[in-house]
Specification:
21% helix, 2 helices, alpha+beta
Length: 66
């Protein structure tokens, strides 16, 4: 899996969606709402969530990654 603490540390605010997918691969799921896109990699136990506005990272969080 590419969902690791090392790869998570590479994600920075302002990165494009394509840059994030180059690091983490294709997301497990994405949702779009009013210009905001939230994508999630991993599963219910271990995951990374990245929120985008206008195709740029604005927030990112992780749960139980190693």
């Amino acid at each position: 899996s590419k969902v690791t603490a090392e790869n998570y540390a590479k994600i920075k605010a302002g990165m494009a969606y394509t840059e994030v997918t180059a690091i983490l691969g294709n997301p497990a799921s994405c949702s779009d709402f009013a210009g905001f896109k939230a994508c999630r990699w991993g599963d219910d136990k271990s995951n990374v969530t990245v929120r985008f506005v206008g195709d740029q990272v604005v927030l990112h969080s992780a749960e139980n990654i190693k």
